[in-house]
Structures are given as structure tokens and as C-alpha cells.
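Z., the sequence and structure:
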Amino acid sequence: MSEVYRVIITPEAQDGIRRAYEWIVEYSPNLVSTWMNGLFQAILSLERMPLRCPLAFENDLFDEELRQLLYGKKGKVYRILTIRRSEVYVLFVRHSAQKPLFSEEE
């Protein structure tokens, strides 16, 4: 049986989730509940095998491996950016159209 990790959502990731929610509720209010449930299912899937996610292209900006889990479809994809220590930390939730992270930004 594989190891189970505790998943911790950082305040920055919570803020990204909140901003995405606000945008979706304004433009697609009938989809927001389904989107939010799916997002949290994707995040909770990191409890098992978080290393299945590929390295994020910003990985070189971090001392630890930065991985990304993609959630969504066709232009509505969000990047769930994580690092794994003894727990899995969700650092950021960003729309795929957003500019990449830069060390001086974050």
C-alpha cells in the first residue's frame, strides 16, 4: 500500500482558488459548484502518489521540486503547484493562461 500524505493548502493557493471561484461564479454560475468539487477532488488526490505529477516549468526557481497537477479542460485548465516534504503543500492554484511564476514575484 502506498504512503498517504497530508495535503496542506497555503494561503496563496487559497487566494488563487478564491479568485478563480469569483471569476467562474460571475461568468458560469451554473458550473461553479461542479468546478469547485472537482478542484478539491484533484487536490485531495495528491494524498497518494504526489510524485506522479510532472515538474512545473518554474521548477528551477525553487530549492525543492515544484510539481504541477493540471485540472480542467480546453482553455479552462488550472495548474495546482505543489512541493512534497513530509506533507504535500499546495503552493499556488493558477489559470494556465497566467504568466509563469518568477522568484521576485512570489
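The first strand starts at residue 7 and ends at 9. The chain is about 30% helix and 20% strand.

Let me know what you think.
H.
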